[in-house]
Amino acid sequence: xxxxxxxxxxxxxxxxxxxxxxxxxxxxxxxxxxxxxxxxxxxxxxxxxxxxxxxxxxxxxxxxxxxxxxxxxxxxxxxxxxxxxxxxxxxxxxxxxxxxxxxxxxxxxxxxxxxxxxxxxxxxxxxxxxxxxxxxxxxxxxxxxxxxxxxxxxxxxxxxxxxxxxxxxxxxxxxxxxxxxxxxxxxxxxx
Length: 191
Known about the structure:
The protein has six helices and six strands.
């Protein structure tokens, strides 16, 4: 996990619950974000479409002031379908498929999109953030992102690997950086 997010519920194509059970699960958790992924590009689409319809039905029963953001990062052939099914019910954002083929994983676009939503919905709602923003022209960053940038800088400066363990009050991060690459893990259950 490279973002501040906690999975509070999971629906899957092999979920043992019926549609009512899945809808009840979504309504009981009141998520801030629903992340939809599945299917390789050009692969089967019927079951993922059915799952999106279940999510859409759940959204139609939610309070209009408390709708979650939707991020679709699945089979690219279903992007228009995702917007058609969910677009009138919630704000749908599309990222590149996280699994475009069986042998490829592509997380950067989806994590960047979720991080921008985090900045928009969490950081921007912090008390007195507007007065802090007057001091800079830069966009506020999540702590893990800012620390990761610092580790990248130190790795360049030292011309070698750098390791950082950041334990906060609610989250823990492990960041490994070299002059050419960074690896980062965020644990929302540690801190």
